[in-house]
Amino acid sequence: MSNRQTKTDVILIGAGVMSATLGSLLKELAPQWEIKVFEKLANPGEESSNEWNNAGTGHSALCELNYTTEKADGSIDITKAIKINEQFQLSRQFWSYLVNRELIHNPQDFIMPIPHMSLVQGEKNVTFLKKRFEALSNNPLFQGMEFSDDPDKLKEWIPLIMEGRTDNEPIAATKIDSGTDVNFGALTRMLFDHLKSLDVEINYKHAVKDIKRTSEGLWEVKVHNNESGSTEYHTAKFVFIGGGGGSLPLLQKTGIPESKHIGGFPVSGLFMVCNNPEIVEQHHAKVYGKAKVGAPPMSVPHLDTRYIDNKKSLLFGPFAGFSPKFLKTGSNLDLIRSVKPNNVLTMLAAGFKEMALTKYLIQQVLLSNEKRLEELKEFIPNAKLEDWDIVVAGQRVQVIKDTETGGKGTLQFGTEVVTASDGSVAALLGASPGASTAVHVMLEVLEKCFPQYMMEWEPKLKEMIPSYGMSLMENPELLQEIHTSTAQALGLSQQELAYS
Ligand SMILES: Cc1cc2nc3c(=O)[nH]c(=O)nc-3n(C[C@H](O)[C@H](O)[C@H](O)COP(=O)(O)OP(=O)(O)OC[C@H]3O[C@@H](n4cnc5c(N)ncnc54)[C@H](O)[C@@H]3O)c2cc1C
Asked: Name one GO molecular function term (predicted).
């Protein structure tokens, strides 16, 4: 069996949206650099980035209630919402650049406009939503947001949700039409087609087994060619570990000090998908509710209009659950194998602290379809089980680490870029807000790993992302300009008309 050996500038591990984004950025900034990709599956975007494995929300904090918290004095903290919205604007700009340069085509195949709504019931929640609306609607990033607690108005906005509602509990919603549904699977595939056209070597059915530092200070990646059964060794100056849930075990293999004392907590997910086109047609929004007390933020229930394969669909969920696998196609031994002498205490501390969460997730796994229907009925009172099927979503591996505020073994719900001190290797851990902020996260990788090139790259970065390095909230004119130009490039305004 032949042992292929190569040397290259950059290796990207995993063919998800993160590697696709980093590769596309690098090909614009340093076109002469040679890039190789290794993906263990047969196609790009088959794990979390696949359209059926995530909710496809272009997260920009327009509707997600967990990004705005109520402070002790009753005011609403919108810091996180602003941050996430600003990050999404970077994605919109980069995608628009790629479309305008005809590097990717047909944006309607990966992004569609859809109103983003938040919906709450009960007096306390209605008061919270109104305060949230007041705090956000004056901010240029959230322009156009509407609030209503008038059932007649809500019937206009969300007829399917309002039909058959007999209780007299106060109910309210906010609505903003500039939300999006993003098919991250389609986007990933487009970006890999683009990279292939630039002679990036993309190796599918190639699983990375080990990563070691060479005596010359490079990284040697050991790869199993699943088709031929052979082992290959590829060396690079820079390695990006974009393995999604599979990133943590690969980061641990590097042995870098930054990889120590970190653990992963896998959370699985299920969606209910409507199989009745008549019901699908009655809804046109992404409607986010409030997480139940004790539920983790990633299990906020939402009813989403989706555009998949040019067809409108309706998804409800996600129902979170526990599975020891780090990838949907992973192994039941993933969790246990990730426990190492350096992180065992961190993991044990998290296990002890997160007993309630583990119990909650196990209860969620054991839910019957009838129980899931009860949760769906909180959104669609007239829902019938026969109109809905179950699909298994992707795995999210939440980061566990020791923090100053949370102490040993603290569960993190965001994303973390872990890099070696010399910037020669970077890994992306965690899953939220996820694919929507891929451009922001990959810019962070560039800033941390290639500080020596940032000055040289800045003009090109500004050409691709005009607001790079600036706050759009503080530059409302630029925000308006960017909003209009990206909506035009991505066809968001025309599509809105076509589908309304
Ligand atoms: C239920 C759910 C709902 C979500 N909803 C949203 C949402 O609404 N909006 C949003 O923006 N984000 C959402 N996300 C998050 C988003 O899907 C992820 O953040 C994003 O897809 C991660 O992309 P990635 O490239 O890091 O990982 P992935 O897409 O998982 O890609 C990683 C790739 O690496 C490969 N790989 C792993 N290990 C190896 C190895 N050893 N060798 C070779 N290849 C390897 C895998 O096969 C895979 O193809 C959601 C996620 C889930 C699970």
From this structure: (S)-2-hydroxyglutarate dehydrogenase activity
